[in-house]
Write a structure and sequence with these properties.
CATH topology: Alpha-Beta Plaits
Structural class: alpha+beta
Number of domains: 1
Largest sheet: 5 strands, antiparallel
Order of helices and strands: EHHEEHHEE
CATH architecture: 2-Layer Sandwich
Number of helices: 4
Length: 111
């Protein structure tokens, strides 16, 4: 079992942030997206927000592969539709390279 943490910003607009949170409530999430996450060997996922900054924590099995997840997502029209919808609310971190969304964070302390 391994854990990954990522960060991303939302557009700093209260209405858009509220709509983004709406889409992430369990009753509003798309079942195809949940399935794609589980199919990629992600066993747990949480997203936290402070202001317009998001932090995502994922726990994965040993079978998880960043590259394989990217391939699966690229081949899944529903995931692409979801990503396009989410990009309305999201913005890349200032230090992101072109095309990057969620950026991996670096563990700097552990107790």
């Amino acid at each position: 079992m391994e854990r990954f943490c990522f960060a991303l910003d939302l557009v700093d607009d209260e209405k858009l942030i509220a709509e983004y949170e709406h889409w992430h409530k369990a009753e509003n999430g798309w079942p195809e997206i949940r399935k794609s996450i589980l199919d990629a060997h992600i066993t747990a996922m949480e997203i936290y927000r402070t202001g317009n900054r998001l932090f995502m924590i994922m726990e994965v099995t040993d079978e998880y592969s960043v590259e394989q997840k990217a391939k699966m997502d690229a081949a899944n029209p529903k995931v692409q539709e979801w990503e396009q919808l989410m990009w309305k609310f999201q913005q890349a971190l200032p230090w992101a390279k072109p095309g990057e969304k969620w950026l991996a964070t670096k563990l700097i302390f552990q107790l």
